[in-house]
User: Fold this.
Amino acid sequence: MSANISPARPPLLHVDGVSKRFGAVVAAAEITMSVHPGEHVSLIGSNGAGKTTLVNMVTGYLKPDGGRIGFDGRDVTALAPRAITRLGVARSFQIPQLYGDLTVLDNMLVANACHDQRLSFWQPAQRPQAIDRAERLLERFRLSEHRARRVAELPGGVRKLLDIAMALTGAPKLLLLDEPTSGVSAEEKFPMMDTIMSALGQEAMTVLFVEHDMEIVERYASRVVAFYAGRVIADGTPEAALGADDVRRYVTGELLAE
Amino acid sequence: MTASATAASAPALARATPRRFGVVLLAAAAFVLLAAAGYVFPRWLTFLLTMAAGNGLVSLGIVALMRGGVVPFGQGMVFAAGGYTAALLYNKLGFTDALGLAVCGGVAAVLVAAPFAPLLSRYRGIFFAMLTLALSMVAYGLLMKLDALGGSDGFNVGRPTLLGQKLPDDRVGYTLYLLTIFVATIAAVAMRVFFDSTRGLVTLAVRENELRVEYLGGSVRRAMAINFVVAAFCAGLGGALVVLSLGHIEPNFSFWTTSGEFVFVAILAGWQSVAAVFIASTVLEIVRSFSSAYFPNTWQLALGLFLLFVIRFLPRGIGSLWTKRRGH
Assistant:
């Protein structure tokens, strides 16, 4: 993954001094970070470090106690998830959020219908253009063979891919992936990330992904932001970030914590 | 990969348009068959089917809401709104056209329901059910007290006209039967089109996972509010048509047991088939007629046992007998 970061370009996502507390727990303490167009940024950190909280704040599910979140030149701090989605931020979930009773294709059609600005009483959900668009995306994620199956019957890896394919339906500018390989067996992880990245690569998508597997991070991230106790403790290339003492101490556990 | 995907997509591409054509054809055939049968049916049976179709319209609206995961226990309110509007327009303004009155009933029900739609769209499950129940009981209380609307006795409505024609004694029952099943058929087809539309699919998605709908850019609350208004329109149509055939209206239209019967029919029908709603409604009318004739004080017992049986053996309703196990 080449990092085509150009400092001159304005960041697509800019998180500026964002804080969030849950009672006594500090989930985010004045976090400042940016994501530039075309970057693949990985968020790492132990459980409870604040990675998912950040994803939830960027997508509008949680409101920050303080600070500002800017996306594509607009302040999105106070916007609802739907409004942020409409601006071009899509997300997938650690536990795939799918429609188990519907088929794979129908799940894609739900995504397609939700993305339509004006929902129609008349236009069939299963109209040819929508099916075409859905099937092109399914093909990119190598899901075509499952298209007619009920989602509840599918294995975990397939559901993860479908979750991401649905997020991509609206052609977002920024994609947030919350642990794309969690719950997937060790030997499936790399093929799965290859599938995801090649599917995304066709659009040079900007990606922010939360990941626990450092091999995945090293291989697929162009930049790494490490979290500990709601703070950013490292931000740089994968080599630099993963080699930092604080990261080795608090994230990867290579050094003993004092 | 490309070749196999294209080949696999062919049946899906072919599915949407002919399906719609097939639905219209099936509905037209059902209407013609019922219209012809009604001509030879005894009067009590055409009346029973008129009631079944009129009440079925209310349950059809409930099914539209059930597809989004909520069950209203107060559709009696919008049913009464349609009924009282038709009756008052007839008695006070001298507007007697049955089709016009039915449409006015639907519109009036929408006007009554629309102010509450944004509020109700926030609630789910038992809260939604209880709020709608509360609204209908407030309406019931008002109707009982308002002497201008006949109070607890209600009032009578005269014989309507249809498209400028007076309806003679021997034809009035059959004509109202025709009108009611005609309106029910149109509503059923429209509802099927709605269920299969992008909006209908989003409603199904709301039922299963609201969060994801919002994260995909869809508005859950707008979907719920619109379904509530659509359900109200159906209930208003039904209320007006039932009043015209009964010739009488009273506050009981808005009583909670009336609302309960509409829910009973919707659960009996399931949420997959629109035809099932009218079949279930007919079943209820038949059980009600025969049970109240043969064991007048315990007919609800028969109804309860029947519902138990359906829930145990057909949890997705009688519609699941002929719809495949898929989302819609």
